[in-house]
Amino acid sequence: MENRLKPMDAEQLREYGHKMVDFIADYYKTIENFPVLSQVEPGYLRNLLPDSAPNQPDSFQHVLDDIQAKILPGVTHWQSPNYFAYYPSNSSVAGFVGEMLSAGLNIVGFSWIASPAATELEMIVLDWLAKMLKLPEDFLSAGRGGGVIQGTASEAVLVVLLAARDKVLRRVGKDALEKLVVYASDQTHSSLQKACQMAGIHPENCRLLKATSSTNYALSPEFLSETISQDLTIGLIPFFLCATVGTTSSTAVDPLLSLGKIAKSNGMWFHVDAAYAGSACVCPEFRHYMDGVEVADSFNMNAHKWFLTNFDCSALWVKDRSALVQALSTNPEYLKNKITETMDGITTVWLGKPAMLYKKSYQVGQTF
């Protein structure tokens, strides 16, 4: 029993690691031969696997054989060059080699001291990416803003919605929650509605304004202004506007500058969701789709769309990180340490991000 349960040693890791790399390389070499959409019927796998976990370990080769025979038929091949659903294939050799290193180091980066390189590398790389996107300097970590990796754009919009909610409630009083109103077009990703539900915003106060072909399915500034005026008249509090650069249904782009001015004149948080098309804006010929981002409070794009980065890696930038810190931070005894206590308050918490903010360290070896 003792021999059977011995953990893998360094040499076995080297041997099996080579086999796994060969398996993945062979998969990519032949990926075009698979039907993109899985051809199995629902419940197919239960008939192929035992009812309970095995009592004895299996050979590594047998595991690979099982994957080939039982798992791959149930895979929809997102990385196939013939895949055209949802959004573009998102991986690369550099991406999954980076995943190997990240998994091997297995850093749990809930505070700066837990692994200084993980936190600092994340900040530096997001500054690089912000500069590639030509984001305003307000979004860089050298000032009051900065970037932080989320898992998905759904998490990003929830994080900034919570920050915006708490910011306005500190001003108008916590009992005003039922009066808070969120605005976006009806083309906005459904994650905004979910974020509203989690943040306690009343469903009837999530205004998804109809966008039509007359505006190429972008949100109309005139319609937005009219709706906000109506809400103000009945005593509601507009506090959050979400614009989109590249909607899921049609890749529509909202007029950021016009919408941002309306948000600012009404004291609202202005978030730009560029999860889908933001990657393309690195290219100079597409950067104009982000014109107006200078008036935004936060900006999000998915590196796992078009940037050859493994899912999930969603980049979020804010102009004022203190809003996120105040809304989401805790400071239990097990997160305290002498190093971060010597820093200023905002930097301390940003470098020692709580688990809700800090999703994973940047995968060294990935390229943009």
UniProtKB/TrEMBL annotation:
**InterPro entries in the record:** Aromatic_deC, PyrdxlP-dep_de-COase, PyrdxlP-dep_Trfase, PyrdxlP-dep_Trfase_major, Pyridoxal-P_BS
- According to the UniProt record, list the residues that bear N6-(pyridoxal phosphate)lysine: 305
Report the protein name in the record.
Answer: Tyrosine decarboxylase
Q: Provide the leader sequence positions.
A: none
Q: What protein family is recorded? A: Belongs to the group II decarboxylase family.
Pfam families attached to this UniProt entry? Pyridoxal_deC
- Cofactor dependence: pyridoxal 5'-phosphate
The taxonomic lineage of its organism, from the top, reads: Eukaryota, Viridiplantae, Streptophyta, Embryophyta, Tracheophyta
